[in-house]
Design brief:
Elements (H helix, E strand, L loop, with lengths): L2 H25 L3 E6 H11 L8 H12 L7 E6 L1 H10 L3 H28 L3 H12 L3 H14 L5 E4 L1 H31 L1
Antiparallel strand pairs: 1-2, 1-3
Helix pairs in contact: 1-5, 1-8, 2-3, 4-5, 5-6, 5-7, 5-8
Amino acid sequence: MNTSLQEKLVLSALLTATTALLYFALTLPIISFEINGNSIVDVIRGVAPSMNDLTNEDIFLLAEAFLETDLSGYRSLEAYSVIGGANRLWGLENYFPAILIVLFSVVFPIVKLAITWLVAFRGQPQNLNKIMTAVHRVSMLDVFVVSVIVFVISRSAGYEVSFGIGFYVFVTYFFIHLITSAFVARVTSHAALAKG
């Protein structure tokens, strides 16, 4: 089999895998928040220090009376994908973080992937190289945005924060995209040398 044909097949497989991984990274749950009835006591103690002389049972009973519900066995689990989390933030009128998440975790990865596809099959014209360089400069901001959100939420009393499968798919996408970009650069430089 021709080396050029082998490279194109590997390139197609890598780009297809990267595209699928990005789709699942954006749509599968990336983070989960869990609160149970017992952790409500911790939340109340955190916001109402005047209740520190009360026992946990007393605070729990007051919370049940106030909420008019039985909290024993209460457990709430919410899981969010990148897109679902941004949508939730937008619905809560937290527009700036929602825009940041969409921009750095959805738009930029899609633009990077589209540019990688173009470079892989059309070569690397100079203007596309400038765009790719600009996009790569801000490509790690998506990781920063997600890490800041996780840190802030994990510091909230009463919540248990855990990563969902989408987080691991996102990390896998990131590394596979790095490998794919390096392979695209190698293939396009070989093609340029062959022409020159």
